[in-house]
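Question (not urgent): is this output format expected?
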Amino acid sequence: MAQLDQLQSWHSNWRGLRVVVFGLGVSGFSVADTLAELGCEVLVVAQKAEADLLDILDVIGVSHITGEAAVGVSQQVIDFAPELLVTSPGIRPENELLAWAAENDVAVWVDIELAWRVRDKNAKVADWICVTGTNGKTTTVQLVEHMLVTSGRRALACGNIGTPVLDAIRDPEGFDVLVVELSSFQLHYMGNIEPYSSAVLNIADDHLDWHGDFEAYSDTKAKIYENTRVACVYNVNDLATEKMVENADVHEGARAIGFTTGIPSRSQVGFVEDILADRAFLDDRANSALEIATLEDLAEIGVLTPHLMANVAAATALARSIDVAPAAILEAIRTFKLDSHRIELLLEKDGVRWIDDSKATNPHAAAASLNSFENVIWIVGGLLKGVDLGELVKNFGGRLKAAIVIGVDRAPVLEALAANAPSVAVVEISESDKSQVMTKVVIAAKELAAAGDTVLLAPAAASMDQFKDYEDRGQQFSDAVRIEVGDEI
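Got this back:
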């Protein structure tokens, strides 16, 4: 069997390579399916697996271990003697099977590594634009995709969003550009790729329970800049992202391109009064700028906030790096709509705004929301993932009229509020009846709210303690607002 370092193409000899696929979610299934198509011997190990996916694995001749038999390191895995293990990215490195792989010199990849190696399946080999960050990834990736499509390119947002990257690679028509959202989990396991352009949008405490500490989390995010060919896009307002670019080993000629919500300097994209301007991708960038769009155009996307401005500036920098014309970017901005649950205005009634930012699953995202509004009735709490809300409350306590606390980790939220914003009114919602959480929240908020207030769902926490996911949390909030406040949503 060829050594793994020789497997750098779809057309390499993958046949007979023994691979364990660990996890059978959307990306795990795409990995198993791809490896089977390449002629590998594949064994799927997954505690949870949908019956219809297992049926397909049976049809394509892929063996699988599920349920309790998939816990730990089974004798079947040992006997299989894998040469490679491809893991679902959310599985922690200290997992027993991954530890066994490390001890036995079995290489561990994620789907991104495999996809990069086999990206030449079709004659049309896509450029990759790669995006990560603590917050704003999905909006930025979707916006870059929309800009590219508007310009006439065949492009797709994929990776940690929607379509698995391997499904994109195997699309028979191929793509000009793949806009790949990468999570910190994917980056942790990822080997070398060579993005056309790359971006870290921002960096703040998140997933510290998984990575161990902030330094490890930050170092993982920084991997995205390695081997970038054309443009490393960084956040001018987040010095850590600029340091990542300075420390990255990139292709000769690759440029550092900043984005900012302020006035752009040379080689930056930012805002001059109410104009989005490009001072990076034009010949006379020392003395002039290209007008891209106005704040009025950006407001077509959704509630105009500094967070939205930053995401649009970042997306513009990435799109300009691959020669998307300003006119196409303007048209894309005017026709793009945010996904639900991202600083979404649900209702404005009796002078009170009801905002759903359920996607704010960490303090950094919640800060972006809180920074956008005054007189806030803040709905906060859930699964905190090892982060401390003290600094967030200290920074934005002056904007709070009240806080409504939900979730299983209520105690540290209440402590943070008491210590850093003692004058803020607090309502605690017990989790005894999960189906009624948002109804109780909205009733409480309605009693507290007056004209000029904003009721803001920006929980700064994950949702799986009381809801299926952040979308379910946001939808239940939206439904409760419609029922308890008004039907104009």
